[in-house]
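On clarity, I found the account of how folds are encoded harder to follow than it need be. For illustration, here is how one protein appears when written out as sequence plus structure tokens.
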Amino acid sequence: SIRRQRQMCIREGPDALIGTKQSLIIYNMLGEQVGRQQLTAGKNEMNISNLPDGIYFIKIGNTAKKIVVQK
């Protein structure tokens, strides 16, 4: 879970994003897209301070993960 943070960090392996245009997409529990960011190789940060407390799903390519935002 992400608590009292305003930024979320995603780290990919050095070759994970080379040659691809991947996006990180955040969906709320209703399936609505509430955030999107183009990713680059290495460390990526995304400001999530505008998201209310709740459960969200992060999708990168075909991979999805659940996060809990609590401030």
Summary: The first strand starts at residue 2 and ends at 3. The radius of gyration is 12 Å. The chain has a mean pLDDT of 77.
